[in-house]
Target: Aminopeptidase N
Amino acid sequence: PSAIFLKDYKVPPFLIDKTELTFDLEEATTIVTSRLHMRRNPAFGKSTAPLVLDGGEDVKLIGVAMDNYSLPPEEYRVSEDKLIITATADKFVLTCETLIEPQNNTRLEGLYRSSSMFCTQCEAEGFRHITYYLDRPDVMSVFTTTIIADESRYPVMLSNGNEVERGKTEEGKTVVVWHDPFPKPAYLFALVAGDLAVKNDVFTTQSQRDVKLQIFTETHNIDKVDYAMEALKRSMRWDEEAYGREYDLDIFMIVAVDDFNMGAMENKGLNIFNSSCLLASPETTTDDNYLRVEAIVAHEYFHNWSGNRVTCRDWFQLSLKEGFTVFRDQTFSADMHSETVKRVEDVAFLKTAQFAEDAGPMAHPVRPASFIEISNFYTLTVYEKGAEIVRMIHTLLGAEKFRAGSDLYFERHDGQAVTCDDFVAAMQDASGVDLSQFKRWYSQAGTPTVLVTDSFDESTGTYRLTMKQDTPATPGQPTKLAVHIPVRVGLLDPQGAELTSSVQGVDAQEHVLHLTSNEQDFEFTGLTARPVPSLLRGFSAPVKLRYDYSTTDLLLLMSSDTDGFNRWSASQQLAVGELNTLIKQSIDGETLSIDSQLALGFKTLLNDASLDPAMVALVLALPSQAYLSELANPIYPAAIKQARDFLKAQLANVLIEDFKRVYHEHNVTGEYQAVAEDIARRSLKNTALSYWVETGNELAQQAVLDQFQSANNMTDQFAALSIAVNTQHAKAADLLSAFYEQWKNEPLVVNKWLMLSASQESDAALTTVKSLMAHPAFDLKNPNKVRSVLGGFGQSMSGFHNADGSGYRFLADQIIVLNKKNPQIASRLCTPLTRWKKLQPELSVKMKAELERILAEDLSKDVYEVVSKSLA
Ligand code: B3K
Ligand code: ZN
Model:
């Protein structure tokens, strides 16, 4: 397989003004007829180039005609993935008849079956698995879709836009015609047919138009869509208020499907969701999942403007829609709940997973310069780092000018397929802020490090910060230039009071410093004593900040900083420091011991009733195994686990009375509501319980059992179960079986059970995961189940990182099997193996050997790209 490059971009030689599709759906095969109204693209220049259409090897061509003239075989060529027509007129109608087999489509790209329904997934290049087409986002066309099916089996037949006709064929099949007036690329096409239940609602837009809202699910799930429907209406209102964006069609539909490669898809007017990202009920859904449903409903809805009305010119520009839309959904969630809590969660995720990606073999710029398989680039870098870039633009411009920039962007490019440069240009033009150097964020991979040192001159009352930035080399990018880094800074006095200072003549408590050179000094005047700096407030740039804080400084920031985010950040730095000491002791074979200062900070927190319980819970959560691995080099997985367990137990023992009290104080029962205040209390309560149980205290052990039995919601029940499993509670196995018995008819709950079961620490971890894969609840064709079991297994130290390499071998075996069935899922499963270079030597060689074994197979482009780049 070979790479394609951004620098080779050319406008399409042909355009498709109108696309007319007919799907004749049968159980075994589907016949697709397309009528494409095509013409040569004037922007391409004069040309006699042949017409080259994209197709998949799973598409069988039945016939092709040009302006109703059936082409004889010598006038076209079919290769594995192209249909080439040598001679064409300047303007013509191309008719293609193709045959596909949706029920044999295990890749879940194109048209496939999930349960008893037909559904589609076309982004990025799935449409070519339906019929021959110019399957690229800069070819935008007006679609009319005719669905023909047996109404008794498929009473619901949906596609994009509005239903415009309904009738019967001579054989008595039902015919439904949908028309979408908005030109769109093929990746936004969708079709659904099935026996589905529907929930209806209405949203009145700001200009007083009524939009019909419909959520479809299989009948047994229709009682779980109320939350998503409310979230949808909140999103529609928010996009009007925050961005001035109104919905444009008369109907907006969402369909839940069980078999889906990712979370959801923003097809025009017809979003398709993984049921795990849409369905919610108190008994079956945790708080985290509720928030996820809300965020994803919002994200897909927001794509209607940032993605659909204005789309990407080519797939290198993916972050144009994804980075911006993630930023939009993050802001929405912050507005719906707590801004600081949301920011902490997002940053913790970014620093754990995106930073690891940016430091690994698959590191790539937010706007990649090349790829082998675009599916591999739906990454944390394109999404989350992309959102950080938009957030930095927001910081540099301020809210008002940012809004002016987004208004200009939508107005200027409505109906177009554009680039990240176009987005930045609109922001720059509307604000007058120079973003030319800033644009390097799009083209340079790697996480910059910002090293900060300081000095204080008592005679002049001047405090100086010296900042040095450096971006590490990444594959294909040995040297880097300085980027424009906005650094939000405040200063505290030794008692923790916020200080006013002057920077370049501006007096303020907080300054945004512009770090644009490799090394730069910033002076703060008007101070009487050396301050404690609160740096990178709100995580104002996606960088690794290094400043040598004393423990006293960190405790001060933890208790007094006015920036809630930095209070959390200080606690994390303190915890990381202590954990690193313990990790080193463990690696050196010493007895672990520490005089934890963190306990002091925790005690203050646990006794301060004025704090948001959600923030307290976040501070109490020790840095994750994954985050500590990202920081480590090399990674000693067992040492990290041992250190974390040790510190947690020590904190639990020192603060046992506090944890017990906080558990009881927040253990309120009542009707479940997924609102910020209740979520916060449950989160703190369950965090406190997890510590309290660490002490081995009998009352705590009993509290876990009681909570498991009596909980009226999944958050509390699953928290009790997880705590039991993770602390190796004597009754853990019984609770796991009881949980399965209780929920075996709820697949989404069973997935949680699979994940927790697969992550258990024990000598039999590998045997356990093998038996889970043989369990009736498991299905290798269902991505959610695969993710649960293999994702869970990846968290088990004794299983995945077993010293004999059996865990790595097992994962590699699964990747080899899935490579043929579902390349996208197989490729995602490779991620933990791509970290082999950073692993302790004995494990590293074993992991590498598994990658080499995979590479020797006949691989899909997806798996080939990840594995070969990891070994390079
Ligand atoms: N745009 C889709 C992702 C499609 C992934 C294709 N491999 C979901 C989203 O980001 O909204
Ligand atoms: Zn998206």
In short: The mean pLDDT is 98.
